[in-house]
Amino acid sequence: MTKILIGACLMGCKVRYNANNLSVNDADFHKIIGLHDIISFCPEVSAGMPTPRPPAEITNDDGSGVLKG
Question: What is the pTM of this model?
Fold first, then answer.
């Protein structure tokens, strides 16, 4: 059986920044997870980030300040 790495939030784990998950209501997705050996993984949690945590998105800017340090 093929192993497939899938984000833990897509598998129903409440690991997103807001302590929620992402609901996937797609027949093809459910077919894939039914036919393969699924490994769920959250890189943010594995890196030690807490749940919940502040969102990591840039608002009201184009990101140039982040690139400048």
Answer: 0.76
